[in-house]
Amino acid sequence: MSDAMVLDAQGVTVRYPGNPPVTAVDDVSVQVASGETVALVGESGSGKSSLARAVAGIERTAGGLITFDGMPVAPMGVRRRPVALTGIQMVFQDPSTSLNPRRRIGDQIGDGIQTALARGDQGSRVEEWLERVGLDPSWTRRYPHQFSGGQKQRIAIARALAARPKLLIADEPISALDASTQTSVAALMRDLVAEVGAGMLFISHDLAVVRRIADRTLVMYAGRMLESRPTAELWADPRHPYTRSLLAAIPEPDGRGRIPAAPTAEDRAAWAATPAV
């Protein structure tokens, strides 16, 4: 892992309109270095996706500073994004909504290659990226509807990495896949990110997969960052009670699994009141 910091987000706050407004992300900081995979975990509604979209410049922030490769990240508007910020690429949960159904997949991966060329990075071939994600390189003229969900997600990954990003943000990229391919696709993403020298922010609620691929794991609950530590250390010695609850919910290897009882209101109040560690 390089010491070069590609993402430095400090004190990020995201609020949505309402009466009163809803604070989805509350003063959260996160950093990702080149060559590092950082996982962001927590239950649904914890603010993971809102933070990811803010980091990518998709969501407006109510506070904090986000820099990518030393450059402030401004929310996307109607104007074309600065070329330097195309070094941030994102893979979404559902590839069916992120791939254009009317365009051949070769053309869509080609968009990523053109993005890399516009930044002065080296070019590549569409067929090369299809092969790298485990698909037949002769399928360039096919359309998205001709592929399974897992194959479409691989195409979305190829398109993002063909742009040779310095930061890849993956927002629940494996949750829509069947269990047999989730781990392999996550491992593929980690390997390819390392190959192009990028950092990756990997958002997931699948802790078993996170344990396999993440260098560091950040735990969020109710919009707050509760724990941020190297993954191996966090698994060996979870310090926050919410982290311990999350890890207790992972099924055991014997196949029977063990899911704890639903947390009580007192549990949730205690988690929210316990300081971050």
Automatic annotation (TrEMBL):
SUPFAM superfamilies, per the entry: P-loop containing nucleoside triphosphate hydrolases (SSF52540)
Keywords: ATP-binding, Nucleotide-binding, Transport
Listed SMART domains: AAA (SM00382)
Superkingdom to which the source organism belongs: Bacteria
All residue ranges annotated as the ABC transporter domain in the record: 7-247
GO BP terms: peptide transport; transmembrane transport
UniProt GO MF annotations: ATP binding; ATP hydrolysis activity
Similarity comment: family membership: Belongs to the ABC transporter superfamily.
Protein known as: ABC-type dipeptide/oligopeptide/nickel transport system ATPase subunit
